[in-house]
Amino acid sequence: MDPIHGTSSDDSFEDSLARVPGFLRGVETGWEALARRCAAISTERVFFEVMNEPHISAREPIDVSWWPPVQERLAAAIRRGAPRNTIIATGEQWGGIEGLLALAPLADRNVVYSFHWYEPFTFTHQGADWAGEIPKLLAGIPYPSSPVAVAASVSALADPRAKKEVTAYGGDRWDRRRIEAGLRPAAEWGKKHGVPVFCGEFGVYRKVAPPADRATWITDVRSTIEGLGIGWSMWDYDGGFGLIRYSSPRVRAGRVLDALAVRALGLTAGAWAAGPDFITGEVVLDLDPAAGFLARTRASITVPIQSWPRLWSRDAAAAVVTSHEDAALAPVALVLRHAGGRDWAQSSGLRVPVSEGEKLTLSGTVSLEPLAGEPGPGTGTASLEAVTYDSSGAVLSWDFAAAGADAAAARDASGMQPLTSAFVIGPGVAAIEPRWSGSGPALVRLGPIRLTREAP
Are 334 and 436 contained in the same domain? Predict the structure, then answer.
């Protein structure tokens, strides 16, 4: 459990903690209640961090000394609610080492002391548009640094402030030895006070950082931390600093492991690996249904309803969707009540790279009925199909290999009509995205979509 400070530009929460006694009392009450509730889950696996990166002294005329007494009161409130769980404490100044060194340990002995490490910021936050005016101008900044190493980066920059910062970064000659010199005071503080110290965050924003240099920095920091006897946690899992990315980022499907980062952390993919991504060669994690299929280690996939994007309808106000997870209603995934007269579409959200000549089969189940009060068999339609894309991502066809529902067709035991469409990928098609579509007023029950690669 880790309450964050709020947005980096909004310090009202911390400001109130520091200056409004009634607000602090309210947060104490909240922490005690939350700790009591969460401690019931586990005393061994649930830790409570008092706050993430307190930092108002960086923005307002207040000394860092505001934080220790506030943290002490909040930690006491946590302990009243959770007598046996570990508490994580931290220092002011964004939870950095300087803030840690300014702390006196709490009287409570079941406390771990956390710090975050992102030095040198010029390298770790290059390209980060939320981190200030200069970082967003930087790209391709190398690590380790030296005047020679950064010369090309400096000459490529037009902004004089950015040039000055990168020049200084080169002159500081950041390498493993400098990182160890920066981290060692945290270890010494822990030994001095006889308390455990933990690096709760470290990492490099990966958008424009050179991948090999990013891995070298992670290796240097991780191995140094371990050598100092400090535990660690890298920031983050699947965000801008992440260990993974998604083959289908819109729906967070097909998790691809950053093999360089894994090695830099001293880890191996082990049982997680489903195989290499057939486009990038990177390791794909076997942690979700799409991963193995996108890696071509599995022949078929049923796209889970949890990944389906929001339904689109040209008559948006006329569409109502409900989902069903009750096993008694299986295999129904979505129920669509569409009162509009125009078209609608429900994508699977899974965009699959394909090759010319590849044979695939699309299958699913659907039922199509008139809305209550609609005369006759109804006027609505539904079909199973694929959207096709070229290599630039432009749509080639919205209804490739469509198979339409028939209100009079035979149904299975659950009342659903099976639909199947087998097709061959033609020239110019680089990817497909399975979907349901239809038009007009109807009560439509949509089952899961299954995509299968057929043997050549």
Answer: yes
* pLDDT 10s digits, 363-398: 998 988 888 766 555 678 899 999 999 999 899 999
CA-wise closest residue to 208 among 129, 148, 119, 118: 129
372 and 236 in a common domain: no
Q: Mind listing the pLDDT tens digit for each residue in 250-280?
A: 656 666 778 788 889 988 765 445 444 433 4
Q: Which residues contact 126 (CB under 8 A, 6 or more apart)?
A: 135, 138, 139, 140, 141, 205, 208, 209
Which of these, 441, 403, 434, lies nearest to 314 by C-alpha position? 441
227: helix, strand or coil: helix
d(C-alpha 116, C-alpha 225), whole Å: 12
Residues in the chain: 456
Is 420 inside a domain boundary?
yes
Residues 94 and 139 in one domain: yes
For the chain, what is the domain count?
3
| Residues 227, 79 share a domain | yes
Query: How much is the pLDDT for 253?
Result: 62
Tens of pLDDT along 315-355? Answer: 877 777 776 544 444 456 788 888 888 999 998 888 888 89
Mean pLDDT of the chain: 86
Sequence-separated (6 or more) residues with CB below 8 Å from residue 148? 170
Residue 2 belongs to some domain of the structure = no
DSSP letters spanning 370-387: PPTT--TT-S-EEEEEEE
Q: Which of 128, 37, 36 is nearest to 82 (CA)?
A: 36
Overall average pLDDT of the 403-425 stretch: 80
Amino acid at 200: G
- Residue 205 falls inside a structural domain: yes
CATH of the domain at 196: 3.20.20.80
* 3-state DSSP assignment of residue 82: coil
* Contact between residue 451 and residue 345 where contact means Cβ atoms under 8 Å apart: no
Bridge partners of 445, per DSSP, are 335, 367
Task: Examine the pLDDT at 313 and tell me if it is beyond 80.
Answer: yes
Beta bridge partners of 88: 49, 112
Domain membership of residue 372 as a residue range: 305-453
Tell me the CA end-to-end span of the chain in Å, nearest whole number: 51
